[in-house]
Amino acid sequence: MEKKAEKLIENLEERVRFFSQLGVDFIGVSPASKEPSYPSLEEQILSCQMCSLGKGRKNAVPGEGNLEAELMFVGEAPGRDEDIQGRPFVGRAGQLLSKIINAMHFKREEVYITNIVKCRPPENRTPHVDEIEKCKAYLLSQIEMIQPRVIVSLGKAASDFFIHSRLGMTALRGNFSEYGGIRVMPTFHPSYLIRNEPNKILKKMVWEDMQEVMAFLDKK
Ligand code: URA
Questions:
Q1: What percent of the chain has pLDDT over 70?
Q2: Which residue, by CA, sits nearest to atom 7 of ligand 1?
Q3: Which CATH superfamily is domain 29-217 in?
Q4: What is the reported pTM?
Q5: Distance 171 CA to ligand 1 centre (A)
């Protein structure tokens, strides 16, 4: 029992060190419940003007789902539909993501879904490095609050956030990495599957990756 407590404290210290090294200064987790600190983080995101994306957006998109989720999906940035609705993955790519989640025997509301950048870039371009940097603390705080067991990173931009590698997605996907003690599974972005609809092998690969995740989570 003592050993278990020691290990817990060690883990906690390691996490605090990890996040403070990254400059996160608004974690604010309440030990009794994770909920009280979440709305304030959401409010900060909704009114954020830390980068120029704040000026062009209709709505910031903090993310949504279960704050106790064991599984978290992280995409690149909100698109047009997400910007209008203020919700992540609600367009075509979102519908496909929902199907993938359901195929994994999860309900969409059981997982947590967000992006590395919370505001829509103009013309859906890939977010710039400085935009990702400015937005980083929000995602790190979400991860810290939710403490998922697995993060699925969707596409290259999200995977680069967690895994510093020159490899492309074809080489990266399907292999677990670790980020701050959390397993990260990189896989293709649903938009990429839609853009390459005739290539059924891509879908098969994503499904193989998700099966790895399900096996790790012991999801049947
Ligand atoms: N693509 C993303 O990366 N995120 C969304 O929320 C929607 C589309």
A1: 84
A2: 89
A3: Uracil-DNA glycosylase-like domain (3.40.470.10)
A4: 0.86
A5: 22
